Amino acid sequence: MRTLRAWLHRLGGSFVSSRRDRDFDDELESHLQLHIADKIRSGMTAAEARREALIALGGVAVTRDRYRDRRGFPVVAHLAQDLRFAARLFRRSPGFTLTAIVTTMLAVGVNVAIFSAFNAAAFRPLQLPDAGRLVAISTRFEGHRRRNVHGAPSLLSLQEFEAVRDQARAFDSLVAFAPFNPVTLGGRDPKQILATAASCGYFAALRVYPALGRDLAASDCVKGAQPVVVISDSLWRSSFSGDPSIVGRIVTLNRTSFLVVGVAPRGFTGTQLVTEDAFVPLSAQPLLDHNWSQVDGTTASWLMVMGHLRDGAAISTARADLDVIAARLSAAARSGNPDLTEHLDASAATMSALPEIRSIVLGVGFTLVAGVGLVLIIACANIANLLLARARARRREIAVRLSLGASRGRLVQQLLTESLVLAALGGAAGFLAASWGTPVLVRYLLAHLPPGSWPMVFDPRPDGRVLAYAIGLTLVTGVAFGLVPAMQTTKDAMLDFKTTTSTDRRSSRRLQSVLITVQVATCLTLLLSAGLLARGLYRANTADPGVAMNGVSVVSYDLANAGYTPAAAQALQARVLERLSTVAGVTSVAETTATPLSDQHSQTDFRLPGSDEVHMIEFSQVTPEFFDLLHIPIAQGRNFLPGEVASEGAVIVSDTTARRLWPGRDPLQQTLILDKVARPVVGVVHDPRISHLGRAGDSYVFLPLGPDSQVRATWLVAGSQPPSPRDLQAAVRAVDPGLAVDVAPLADNLETWRSPSRLAASLAAGLALLALILALTGIFGTVAYAVSRRLREIGIRVAIGAAHADVLRLIVRQGMSPVIIGIGIGLAGAAAAAGLFEAMLFGLSPYDPVSFVLAPLGFFAVALAACYAPARRALRVEPTVALRAE
Amino acid sequence: MGRDKPDVWQGTLSLMILKTLESMGPLHGYGIARRIEQTSGNQLLVNYGTIYPALLKLEQEGAIESDWGVSDNNRRAKFYRLTRAGRKEVERSTREWEQATAILSRFLAPGERS
Known about the structure:
The structure holds 2 protein chains of 2 kinds.
Chain A: H1 2-13, H2 18-41, H3 46-57, H4 60-71, H5 74-92, H6 94-122, E1 134-142, H7 158-167, E2 171-185, E3 191-198, H8 202-206, E4 212-213, E5 228-231, H9 233-239, E6 250-253, E7 256-263, E8 278-281, H10 285-288, E9 304-309, H11 315-333, E10 341-348, H12 355-403, H13 408-447, H14 464-499, H15 506-542, E11 552-556, H16 566-582, E12 586-592, E13 602-607, E14 614-622, H17 625-629, E15 634-637, H18 642-647, E16 651-654, H19 655-661, E17 671-674, E18 677-685, E19 700-704, E20 714-719, H20 725-735, E21 742-745, H21 748-789, H22 791-799, H23 804-834, H24 849-876, H25 879-884
Chain B: H1 10-24, E1 27-28, H2 29-39, H3 51-61, E2 64-70, E3 76-82, H4 84-108
Antiparallel strand pairs in B: 1-3, 2-3
């Protein structure tokens, strides 16, 4: 208690106050006066008495020091002293201070922003109450195993989920679910939404509770039970206008009636990136997707499984449980397959709980973290250079302090305190900017997803982990840019102190050159990447898609999920065609299984007669009107004939395909084999470029779209004036009012290509700009530093008659040589990196000469300017002044 | 200088200060230093300056408190006086010291064997 009290007093006393100092000075003075008065009374002269009193006291300065040390903690006191000193210094050189703080802010801010997004995607528990106790379970096989996979191989089968649910002790609740099922919500205006099939007790296991109604109950999961659904809050508000009596109403999903039993709490849209609007029992899964039913098939991978740890259980408990269960499953599965071993893995439930997704997210995340880490390195190198340059001005001060008895360690402590204060200010600003900016940026991106994307939720708000990362990064930054200059400066100052002349030390100059080279190389890599991506983006915006996209509308709906058999689909499509043709403004209508530049193009294996070689070629099925509608000329041969459409028994190939498969031969004499049927080539089209924007020279094959494939067809509608989407939708609805009809301009497909390149180009441009500013400040600072160190030499040179131009050349050459080396390394780095984003260049060569010449030249020019400005300062100095500078 | 006089270490100095304040009442730093010197019969060499960190420590611990006042010969000086906690502290420390010296003296007493 006593000690604590004293400790608190001392902590407070560590912060020097002049009032307290004065108080003690007064006390000492009164002490001396009392003593002197005594001595005078015993017969001494005033002078003698004062001398005696001082001796008896043991020295005023020493007493004062001891008193001060006792008053506070020396280390804390020194720190407080250093902080005050640093504040004073910063006030005196606001330009330097601001540069250092802003540099750190930008570098730390960018790093924290990227990390907070990475953290939210990969490490942060789901945004659910008590998500810290949620565990995701995945499966992994050793040995060969044939098993159907729907989604990812690490998903569990129903049988495996039931084994875990019944046998694991570590969990108080377990849930299995299959998200991402597009379904049609019926009604006056049918629309596509995403539905999750979930085991009963889904909401309870995730610790969220329906805002209205109830959870999916055990009775709902029984086979043959009335299908029920819990809808999301946003669907409830948007499609049912927040009807408070929604529970108990019937809604239709894929034309099946579902009883609404609950509304999920506001903001809950499942556990994935993409938002889910409906939650139905697992037993209702076959109703969501008419093409496959998993409920009865026991071995397919299709379920995500999460468990909530019971009180007192840790994830290690869960792992032990799962190991036992996996061993039992392996034993059961091993009959006839002795090498097979199944593992069940547990990991904290995050947004990327699935191992397949986690490995992608970690890969991308660490790449980005490394990329922005480069920016941080540039920033550190930069501030270190500035500090080194500034230290020149302070060498005298430091030498004086050394000579007055300060230890080198104490001086390093002081210099480090200064840089840590700079880093802390910049880091705090960067953290705040990132915490505010990242969510804004992400919201913007999510609001501008390419047309046709499902809505997503992603909240990159920083948590404790991000804060810790920011603090750690800031400390590392402060030490990284502060330590080397502090050591160097005190070392130089010690030399000054001993020799009284200052020499430019080779080691520190070499250090600076390396720092500059690193900065330039990194910066140029980023600049070039940005330049390439920007040119790629320009190309994406101007590239000729090779087909007439303007004025064409896409009309699509999902017939398979609406319960259509191929025969029923054929009848429906014939009536829809009639209706579409009569819509005002429509001039032509075609069908296809893959609209141009969409992601629907698939590959399949074609063979040539008399050969077993498989040719994987992209293809789609189209009606004969397709070529006219999109202005794709048939260069040789002819279009499909009605008989060929009916039998789907012919192909039209692209000229690249023809050249590759039958070099030097007439393609019209050839046949292609697909599904064991030989199909004659009836026509050749010139490079359609319809599967990848701006990529020419790919093989492509068109097959006729006949009656049997109607269930997969999408309409393309062209008109003299673009037909109104409402009319097109109405035309389909007139035939079947229950279909969710999507009408979109065909040109929207271009956006899918442009938006990633726009994002990549802006990200790279932002980083490159940042790196450019940093590198230029760095070059400027280094040359300024070099000039200030060599004033004397320059003075001598000028005094003995060197021409100004020669001196200038000398300095600029020295400043530019690390820059030129850096440019060389940067070019190599960019060339290596360019291959990574070839896909975003739309036919532009990754070694695009324009970028590879302009960027280095431009960089060279600005670097030269950054060199020249401080170099000129040297010439303005009078030789005599320069000589006296020492 | 003064190698033949024992150093005063912190703990004992504190006790001496407290005892002095207990017997003399409120006193300034110079007075305390003089008093300790006199009481020890000039056996203890006290650099008067060392009294002040010791006073500060006692004040931080709450055993004493201080105030500016006027001395006998009309000079301004800072006076220290015992607090209630300080009085208890004197009792406790005195007891401890007595025990310690009693034990030690048994070791130092000549020729006694058990």
